Amino acid sequence: MTRLHLGYTGAPLDKADHMRRDAAAIQAARMHPSARFLILDDLKPLMAEGGTDLFWARRSEIPTGLAIFLGLNADGEPRFAVDGKPDDDLPARATDARAAGALLADGRAAIIAQARSVLDWHRRHGFCANCGAPTEVQKAGYSRLCGSCGAEHFPRVDPVVIMLAEKDGLALVGRGPRFPAGFFSALAGFVEPGESLEEAVARELHEEAGIRVHGVRYGASQPWPFPSSLMMGAFATAEGFELALDESEIAEARWVSREEVRAALAGEADWKAPPPLAIAHWLLATWAGRP
Ligand SMILES: [Zn+2]
Fold this sequence. Notes:
Blueprint: H1 17-20, H2 23-31, E1 36-41, E2 44-48, E3 56-57, E4 67-72, E5 78-83, E6 92-94, H3 97-103, H4 108-124, E7 135-138, E8 143-146, E9 152-153, E10 158-167, E11 170-175, E12 187-190, H5 197-209, E13 213-224, E14 229-238, E15 252-257, H6 258-265, H7 279-289
Parallel strand pairs: 1-5, 10-14
Antiparallel strand pairs: 1-2, 1-3, 2-6, 4-5, 7-8, 8-9, 10-11, 10-12, 11-15, 13-14
Helix pairs in contact: 3-4, 6-7
The structure holds zinc ion.
């Protein structure tokens, strides 16, 4: 089976965690002539004109703003992300991070996910959740330290399960109330404290669609940087076909065959499947590709 590339995965950078605690090493990396910077303008990454690659700015071209260390490329050259307003003269365009991710069908999109999630976290965590005092950036952007109570805060990752329930050659897809008309996807929901991935899958399917499942199988995962989700894709076996939808979450749901899924993925069905950037596409394609 060909393994499809999962959007926002496969970063081509060595994250060089050992450098993050070494302020002098980070400063030297920042000043190095080979250092390059991915500017995010209001969380939109700059793409080179034409949209076929990220735009890597030189240090002399970057705006004032928080810079976080992304890592080292294959040649050992440092790469950073900067939160700021770029100069209008740069041959680049600020691009919505979803659109940019879709344009880069390889590991470069993972750099966008890393940069966007971490910079967005800094924007929203300037104050200590423990005591309310201002916090300061540490470890090249991978933690914030409260100067008052000493609490250390780390960029968050929010686990989400996304799953295909299947039974007798049919899989369940649903349309959320805010989805465009005709667009169906795998069901999904946040993992709650105190439950396993398998339990979250079973609970969400029961809450949203009224079905019971067993045999939950993990498939694959992807980061989804809006703002900081980790999508964990799974399959599960349903015990029956009868649905009881929670209409605040699912406006419409249907059981579809592998043939119907293949047609939808090819754009030849009366419903639209998720685009290749999303793990729901991978779940559907993987399921439909099986004999
Ligand atoms: Zn504090």
